[in-house]
Structure formats: structure tokens, C-alpha cells
Design a protein that fits this description.
The protein has one domain (11-243). Helices cover 68% and strands 3% of the residues. The chain is built from 10 helices and 2 strands, in the order ααααββαααααα. The chain has helices at 11-29, 41-58, 69-83, 85-105, 123-138, 141-155, 168-175, 177-206, 212-231, 235-243; strands at 111-114, 119-122. The chain has a two-stranded antiparallel ribbon with strand order 1-2. Helix 8 runs antiparallel to helix 9 (212-231) and helix 8 runs antiparallel to helix 10.
């Protein structure tokens, strides 16, 4: 009858949203900001399904690709995880650098529970991670993740099977950037504290009555914080290129 409203449920469209949400959820929930434990669980779920519904509306639906969900869903999860791997590598490098800084200024014994990972972490690691969050927001990298997700369906449509040759070698090479980033941000503090130890060592040889331990510890702490504060301006340069790193190749 003309003018009748159809009440049929679009099952295939709901399945399409579900498949898209697997890739979107894997990319966002493994990203540092949206995946943070302090972000309420229901808001994360709402965010994932809202973005998935928008992407699903503009993404072509391939009914044949969804005939085997046991294969499609893990593949979508893998693609989503690899899309956010660049930003994860950048933050892993920041944490590695923070541990190096903590060791050199004498803060390695001061540990807290990181709410993001539920693991022990140094105070300096929490501070550097917070700086990383600010860099992400200031440089609009949280928008870049969403643009990458939307554009990934042009290169890898829903239901695409990826081979290990498309991402494994790139991932291994990208993982090496963790140590590069860590040393980039820790090197100024490392050099400054090393020079302090050498200078105090020479002074202690000339004046044995001076307690080098009492002199070195507060001096390394003061100079270390001073150098760290001055080098914060170089943090975005150290990690910006890794933010845009793409591990998955077409």
C-alpha cells in the first residue's frame, strides 16, 4: 500500500555496524586518550558505536564478505589495532624516556600505580605521559585518528583479509622508534647528570673529606629538573613523526 511505513529491521545494516565497530573499537580503545581507564566505560562504548554508525552509513556494504564472521571479525580487529599503532609506539617511547630520566635524577625508586595500565609506574612516567596527552590534543592527532579510520575503508574495505607481509616487517621497524624517542627526550638530562657525576668525582678526588653522595643527589635532582623543563619544547618534534606512522601497508 502506498504511503505505508516499513517496520522491518535492517539486519544486514546492523551487522555492517557491528563489523565496523570492531575496527573502530580496536583503534580507539587502544589509543592513549580514548583507551584510558579514567574514561567511563559507557561513554567509550557510546563513542565507538556512534562513530561506527556514521562510518557504516558512508561505507559500501559487501554482503559476500560477511558470510564468514569467524574470519572477518579478527581481521577487522587486527586492522584497527594496527591503525593506532603509531600513537601507541610514540607513548611507549615517552615512557621509556621517562624511566631513563627517573634513573638519572634519582626518582626511579618513587613509583605509583598508573591508572591507564594498572601497573607500577614512576612519577616521571606519569608526568611525561601527561605531556604526551597535551601534545596529542594540541596537534589535533585525536582528529587524525578519526580521519585515518574513515579513510582506511577505501584502502581496506570491510571484510578485507590482511597478510602478515603487509604489517609485520613495518611493525618491527617501527618498534625500534621506541628507543629512539626515549633517548631523544632523555639525552639532555642524561648528559647533564653525567657531567655532574664526573665533576663531583674529580672534586672528591681532590677533597676526600667532601661527601660526594650528599652533594651529588640534590645537585642531579635540581639540574635534571631544570634541563627537563628547558627541553619540553622539543618533545613535539621528537614524537610528531611517529604519530603519523602507518604500520599497515596495502
Amino acid at each position: 500500500m502506498e504511503g505505508a511505513v516499513s517496520l522491518s529491521i535492517p539486519y544486514f545494516y546492523l551487522i555492517h555496524i557491528l563489523v565496523v565497530s570492531v575496527r573502530v573499537g580496536a583503534a580507539l580503545l587502544f589509543a592513549p586518550i580514548w583507551g584510558h581507564r579514567g574514561f567511563p566505560q559507557y561513554l567509550r562504548i557510546l563513542l565507538v558505536f556512534s562513530i561506527s554508525a556514521v562510518i557504516a552509513a558512508v561505507t559500501p556494504f559487501n554482503e559476500q564478505a560477511y558470510l564468514n564472521p569467524v574470519v572477518v571479525l579478527p581481521a577487522e580487529f587486527l586492522i584497527g589495532t594496527l591503525l593506532s599503532m603509531g600513537i601507541r609506539i610514540a607513548f611507549a617511547g615517552l615512557e621509556f624516556g621517562a624511566h631513563l630520566i627517573s634513573y638519572n635524577i634519582g626518582f626511579s625508586m618513587v613509583q605509583t600505580i598508573d591508572p591507564g595500565t594498572q601497573n607500577r609506574s614512576t612519577v616521571m612516567s606519569g608526568f611525561v605521559s601527561t605531556v604526551g596527552y597535551l601534545v596529542v590534543l594540541a596537534t589535533d592527532q585525536h582528529h587524525s585518528i578519526l580521519r585515518t579510520l574513515a579513510g582506511s575503508y577505501a584502502a581496506f574495505p570491510a571484510g578485507t583479509m590482511v597478510q602478515s607481509s603487509q604489517w609485520f616487517n613495518s611493525l618491527m621497524l617501527a618498534a625500534g622508534q621506541i628507543f629512539v624517542i626515549g633517548w631523544k627526550i632523555a639525552l639532555p638530562v642524561f648528559l647533564a647528570t653525567m657531567l655532574i657525576e664526573v665533576a663531583v668525582g674529580f672534586i672528591a678526588r681532590m677533597q676526600p673529606q667532601i661527601n660526594s653522595l650528599v652533594v651529588t643527589a640534590p645537585l642531579k635532582l635540581y639540574v635534571g629538573f631544570l634541563i627537563l623543563g628547558a627541553s619540553l619544547v622539543f618533545f613535539p618534534r621528537a614524537i610528531n613523526d611517529v604519530f603519523n606512522l602507518m604500520v599497515l601497508r596495502k
